[in-house]
């Protein structure tokens, strides 16, 4: 009997340990970086999962609209949310990880439609700009959208914006360059995609972070573990391998139906 009780206690302790080392992260969908339909659930979430795995954690991603992913992580339902640009108003509620990605935000447009070179947003005063709800972009761009809402269209997804651009319903659309071309190749007709181009000067160059809610006591420990794991990926060369997969299009191909990664 005593041996049985000891065995049961060890089993319960083992189950508790496994459960304690599994974390749940809320994520939006931005291909090829985050999506349940892409290899390894996209580049960023692949990095996140491997960084945590190196520290003994298993990660489960839950995909939600971006605004909801943020709010539910803030409420404490999730251990973290992946991934977000830096913003002062988020810093009061979340711990920021070290950067997991650097993105170049550029304006997409139809070829020969508007100025090729621009110095400030006033150069686009006669053009209609599409924005995606919940995104950071720049303070100046959102301030302009508030002052002149008639010049802007705000929708829920990048895919909607790119389709509206191709159909001529908006004239410009700012988005990460890799994401923009991925969406164009995935969802537009070839002749529509060929008519698009990007403006040479970026709107912004931004870094993406995993956010950990300050309201949860475990967040600081998870943040430290993640940063340690991320640094190990950088130091051992694994990060360079994942970046190479991103550049060569590995994360841009939808996975086979029924085959999912956790």
From TrEMBL:
Sorted UniProt keywords: Signal
The keyword Nucleotide-binding is assigned to this record: no
Solute-binding protein family 3/N-terminal domain segment(s): 40-245
Keyword NADP listed: no
InterPro entries given in the database record: Solute-binding_3/MltF_N
Pfam families: SBP_bac_3
Signal peptide as annotated in the record: 1-20
Protein family membership: Belongs to the bacterial solute-binding protein 3 family.
Name of the protein in its database record: Solute-binding protein family 3/N-terminal domain-containing protein
Organism: Saliniradius amylolyticus
